[in-house]
Amino acid sequence: MFKCKTSAEVGGMGHSVKRKEDARFLHGKGNYVDDVKLPGMLTMVMVRSPYAYAKIKSINKEKALAIPGVLAVITGEDLAQYNLHWMPTLLSDTQMVLPTDTVMHQAQEVCAVIATDRYIAVDGAEAVDVQYEPMDPIVDPFKALDKDAPLLRPDKEDQKDNQIYHWERGDRAKTDEVIANADVVVKERIHLPRIHVASIETCGCVASYDKDTEKLVVYLTTQAPHAIRTVVALVAGHVGLSEEKIRIISPDIGGGFGGKVPVYPAYVVAIAATFLIGKPVKWIEDRSENLVNGFARDYHMDCELAATKDGKIQAFKVSTLADHGYTDSSANPSKYPTGMFSICTGSYDYEHAFAELDAVYTNKAPGGVAYRCSFRVTEAVHAIERMVDKLAAKIGKDPALLRLENFIKKEQFPYSSPLGWSYDSGDYEATLKKAMDMLGYDDYKKEQAQKRKEGKLMGIGISTFTEVVGAGPSKDFDILGIAMFDSAEIRVHPTGKALARFGTKSQGQGHETTYAQILAEELGIPYTDIEIDEGDTDTAPYGLGTYASRSTPTAGAAAAIAARKLRDKGKKIAAYLLEVSEEDIEWEVGKYFVKGAPEKSKTIQEVVFAAYTNIPPGMEPGFEATHYYDPPNLTFPNGAYICVVEVEKETGAIDVKRFVAIDDCGNIINPMIVEGQVHGGLTQGIAPAMYEGIEYDDEGNVLNGTFMDYLVPTAVESPHWETGHTITPSPHHPLGAKGVAESPTVGAPPAIANAIIDALAPLGIEHLDIPITPAKVWEAIQAHS
Ligand code: CDP
């Protein structure tokens, strides 16, 4: 009845099959949160503060409420009646839902206007009369710890100054000693600027409470629907919202990049509004609201790298000041307030390291989101990769050679890093050599020498990064106490077609295709016969969501193991159907057969049919399995990126001539999707390297809150990305796969920065902070000529 197919024919692992989700996206049939329209739905618009720091003297709602169609104006005082005016952040700090007395950053939500349509709501928001008493804001994080700095968070009982916490890892004394006695020490203060994830779809929700069923349904652009459900239950449980009555539906998402993990104040207000008014309430953030709220990065890192005179790295020290805005709403695992920053020792083999960090409050928007990065890995990689290049320049050694001489060798894995990680696998030398070959590194070095003789500015920059992705393990990683694992549930229907559900949530990464490919490989069912479903907490198994490249390492593994449970069940059924013992049954993709007699076989479809129609005596009917996967370790992808630039002396214009990216993410599920991930990630790497940065004036005003001023690179600004890969399987992942999505965003900025600084080196320029814009380059050239 059924014909068996090969791995390639079913679209299994390693095949570049077309993305199943693309038909709906290309035909404009994606279903985003703003597409959700419910009967009687109202619209909410936020009134926002023009000041960075001000007392609220009064809020007068009268004029707004007089506008026909405006139904309510909700203030912090209104929420305070239900104790809903503050909420916890993911890192156990507290954040205002709506203020009752003070605003802490420009564009903070002050109150919400609910109306019958958006036009009326906007008019209503303009008609609300808020009287403020402005105060002097703290904009510069270095001034936040001054003795006479105003205390920004007097609401927190134990808060005596503006320091949020101090964190450190490693042996300070030993590291200092090695640095003090080293032949060569290079030092630099490196700033990774405040940037925005700037996803094309802004944040938004539709909250709908049904008084009869007492059920709250929230359509939400969230990367972590289950975690949000639990947070809503914890925050709003006291007003009668218990977890079984809360359903979070995350529809299609137009880019998340970490910015759609947190709970934003407007979500809570929309939920409160539907609860009070009894009608669905939609809130969709506009572009400027999106650009002035939330942020990623903003680390000021004082780095020191010590080495012998011939370039053997001996120690690395980094002391960081982190600007968190007025609350710490970083989306980090709770035991890792600085995320995975301690990966900062990089791809190199040395013993001594020390990292410390002080986080401070300022009058800026909170956020600290993991922008396409495992919680602060971008910062860590930028620090070490810039410093390695600085060392190479100082001792006059080729930066590629310096790296090759210092790499952790492939036989040293699993490798215990100086700050406590156990790197699972890698072959850094092979990855860099492949990148050098693909580029033609030696030829470019010769060309550069020639160009320098002609007075031209050409630079070659390398970044050889080690990544850390796939949180859990749950013993170490949790968010608000919820253990970080992930899940897969597979239902194979009697006709051999399947539905599989996951605790993760794709935002464009292609999970509907790649998860189906994993199941196709494991079960031999064509990937086109497998529906993938994510994002609805009423149907999907509990999981911690998709961010920080964790889907493949966690839910991907869960899919493989759940499928293997089914394969084991199938083996018993096949033995029964073929009238042999289970030990005599062997498996190849899509087919069980009798050892030594391959013509006696049953396809997976025949076996599944029997699970519903001809069940072996005593066996539980059906063909379904679930697995919750708690990874034993993270996965450690790596990459070698090389960038070639030319800089025009007269204007500071930077031309990226070549960019070669070799990634190693272990075994690959879909090479085409991985290539797409790398292309997108590299573009989000050139973004902070050359274009993006949120700027403030001394009053705390955001200076670039629109896409006119905040340049997000497009295909026009992007060079031709040249990609390739090496494969070092993860030894602990059931498929040997590692995550990949964030690697390019993490690895690209230092390669580009290193290339530009290398181009400028003949002028005596040793460092520039990103974004390295033509204006910044021009100024540096003027200062050095
Ligand atoms: O968590 P997120 O989906 O953002 O990141 P990921 O696990 O790195 O996966 C990104 C996309 O690349 C997914 O569609 C994966 O299935 C795919 N991928 C792959 O095909 N092979 C790998 N080794 C890693 C990821």
TrEMBL record:
Sorted UniProt keywords: Molybdenum, Oxidoreductase
InterPro entries to which the protein is assigned, alphabetical: Ald_Oxase/Xan_DH_a/b, Ald_Oxase/Xan_DH_a/b_sf, Ald_Oxase/xanthine_DH-like, AldOxase/xan_DH_MoCoBD1, AldOxase/xan_DH_MoCoBD2, AldOxase/xan_DH_Mopterin-bd_sf, CO_Mo_DH_lsu
Superkingdom field: Bacteria
Descriptive protein name: Aerobic carbon-monoxide dehydrogenase large subunit
Gene3D superfamilies in UniProt: Aldehyde oxidase/xanthine dehydrogenase, a/b hammerhead, Aldehyde oxidase/xanthine dehydrogenase, molybdopterin binding domain
A Pfam family assignment: Ald_Xan_dh_C
PANTHER family the UniProt entry points to: ALDEHYDE OXIDASE 1-RELATED, XANTHINE DEHYDROGENASE
Chain segments annotated as transmembrane: none
Organism: Robiginitalea aurantiaca
First-tier enzyme category under EC: oxidoreductase
Lineage of source species: Bacteria, Pseudomonadati, Bacteroidota, Flavobacteriia, Flavobacteriales
MF terms (GO), sorted A to Z: carbon-monoxide oxygenase activity
EC identifiers of the protein: 1.2.5.3
Domain Aldehyde oxidase/xanthine dehydrogenase a/b hammerhead: 27-136
